[in-house]
Amino acid sequence: MSAPGVRRNRLPLPTLFGREVRRRRVALGLTLEQLAERSGLTPNYIGTVENGRRDPSLSTVLSLAVGLGVPAGELVGGVAELGPVATETARLLEGAPPDLQDAILAVLKTLVVQKGVANPTIVPIASAPQPGATPTTIAFAIETPQVLVHSLTLAQSSPALQTKLEKVIKTQTGQPFEQDLTRTAITSQLSDIYRNEGYLDITVLDLTHPAPTLTANSIDLDLTATLREGEPYRLSALTWPGSDVISTADFEKSVKLHPEDVASQQALRQSLSPIAAAYYRKGYQDARVQAPATMVAATHHVAYTVRVIPGPQYRLKSVKAIGLNEQQQKDFAAAWRMAPNDFYDLNYVNGFLKSNSSITSLRGYSAAWKASADPETHLVDLILTFTKGGNLATP
User: Fold this and answer.
1) How many CB atoms lie under 10 A from the CB of residue 158?
2) Which CATH class is domain 315-388?
3) Are 41 and 64 in contact (CB under 8 A)?
4) What is the assigned CATH class of domain 234-309?
5) Contact criterion met (CB below 8 Å) for 373 and 311
6) Same topology for domains 13-81 and 145-228, yes or no?
7) Of 3, 200, 335, 362, which is most buried by a Cβ count within 10 Å?
8) Chain centre to alpha carbon of residue 106
């Protein structure tokens, strides 16, 4: 029997990291676009991370951790970060004779059956003292029958936002209940809605439920989330001091959030997007755009001063197309515009593959790509693999 909560595998670390990012994103009910807005990255870039095609830099890990609302160490370490108590508990259980292991699980199963749950499956898992914290103990949970969210009630919520809040209720109803992930998902989804309406002080005070209801196939929970909304904020100032990558004037041409507007976080992210895109075009693929808030609670106003942590500047070293015949290679070379020593722009790669209609010989093809960056020279080797089947280059 393996130590509970400890995963043993030989998959590459980027693959494991990408799977963890995707698992947490899906658990939070986030699309790639929503996570991109929250983390200051692009949806395409996050997609490559989730697919294990990108070995993320430290700044990318930090950005994704912010977007997912978890400590960075939890993303890269997962249950491998078990503390000494959990490790010792796992060793004790693993080191116990098989009949003792079976006896422990049998006792727990009997206790659950006495509560009216027929034929449950009990599994050991790593447990943390609070959501987002490093696991410190081994706990036991009911794996089957599934524990499901039967309903979600929002206490002290604004009637004016009810239509939007119903989406959260609908999303969560019927989902498997996991203590930490469910609370994090509900908090994240509610916070997104409120913060997009300017409620920057929104807090989920508590998530409670009465005794569960037992059915033939599940254990149903009726959850109640108690909210503290606060008052909506308005923008007092959004300041970008400018840089040699994008000027203040160019930024202000596309800004979506203006003084005295409701301080919508969605409008803020849309306003910051051109800054991120400008840095990506100049090869700063790990650029992080930050806008720390200065909030005045007395007047419910907020100001943001934008700054960028650019990271290294990447350039293209080589590009190689695989799976094409001689004519297709010529067509590809004629259409491709990013040459060796040009700034490496991930958005260009994705845009070329998704919206290029000039290469008629590649209609009916799909493409995957892999970028390998030298951490010392910051030069990128790009491999594009084309296969038949798909909608590449469809007008």
Assistant:
1) 15
2) alpha beta
3) yes
4) alpha beta
5) no
6) no
7) 362
8) 38
Task: Locate 257 and state its tokens.
Answer: 């959030």
| Amino acid in the structure at residue 189 | Q
State residue 70's pLDDT score.
76
> Residue 262, Cβ neighbours under 10 Å: how many?
14
Tens digits of per-residue pLDDT, 179-200?
Answer: 777 888 899 999 999 999 999 9
Burial tier of 42 (Cβ tally within 10 Å: 0-12, 13-18, 19+): buried
Sole residue written with tokens 């190689």: 320
Q: What is the mean pLDDT of residues 42-66?
A: 77
Cα–Cα distance between 200 and 64 in angstroms, integer? 21
**Per-residue 3-state assignment (H helix, E strand, C coil) for 44-73:** HHHHHHHCCCCCCCHHHHHHHHHHHCCCHH
pLDDT at 177 over 90: no
In the chain, domain spans: 13-81, 84-143, 145-228, 234-309, 315-388
**Diameter over CA atoms, the chain:** 73
**Among the CATH numbers 3.40.190.10, 3.90.1010.10, 2.30.40.10, 3.10.20.310, which is that of 145-228?**
3.10.20.310
Q: What is the mean pLDDT of residues 20-35?
A: 83
| DSSP SS3 for 164 | helix
Please give the DSSP secondary-structure letter assigned to residue 41.
S
132 vs 104, more confident: 104
